[in-house]
Amino acid sequence: xxxxxxxxxxxxxxxxxxxxxxxxxxxxxxxxxxxxxxxxxxxxxxxxxxxxxxxxxxxxxxxxxxxxxxxxxxxxxxxxxxxxxxxxxxxxxxxxxxxxxxxxxxxxxxxxxxxxxxxxxxxxxxxxxxxxxxxxxxxxxxxxxxxxxxxxxxxxxxxxxxxxxxxxxxxxxxxxxxxxxxxxxxxxxxxxxxxxxxxxxxxxxxxxxxxxxxxxxxxxxxxxxxxxxxxxxxxxxxxxxxxxxxxxxxxxxxxxxxxxxxxxxxxxxxxxxxxxxxxxxxxxxxxxxxx
Length: 291
Hints:
This protein is an alpha+beta fold. It has helices at 16-41, 49-52, 96-106, 125-154, 157-181, 187-213, 218-250, 253-288, and strands at residues 54-60, 78-83, 86-91, 117-123.
């Protein structure tokens, strides 16, 4: 086995139902999490300021982080320390003048800077709803475009629907994970989800192309595809993990969130491509075609 080779997995030991059971069970759990979140909060995800509306304030203060909320009439939705004496505070309120006044009155400036408030920005609830609609439209168009591409490439229902189902699962699983760990759905994290559509299509088309259009035994073709696809995906996962860890250490919350989402989504893509998608392709090759 070479350095970049992938060990052969004995797929003959498992039926198509056994292979599909695990990714479908994970998908069901993810859908349950999102559905439960919607029932309890009225939204399928934890929206950030861009979608929910609110105000984000960056302050530089010697006041300890645990005492910052006491300076405001409204409890902040989050207080994140990004550097020594520097914090990003988020509010659901949009009255920026009042929030600035409370920050200046209730927080102590640092010895090197008399200005407590470094920046202040806000999004109205109506504008947030517009952004949310635009983002949802973008994800929907991207997903539909990917689905059309799959059907145009293979022109057969089962191989094409296998790609679509895998891509759908690659989106739903990270979204459920975001709800569980408290990562907000923002314009940045939506971009991460859009990237996952591209990653998913890439690995699934690679597998389908090797099995359906190249010569050789089914399992030989599968292993050829895995030698490229698994290495490609694992390499991307390693890069995303490094980005998430470094960004978290440096206090760059958005990049840390995107790296985490992509890492989870790529792990889900490995499972969906080489278990769910492959089980459908094997059924199609050995059972579906004969029917």
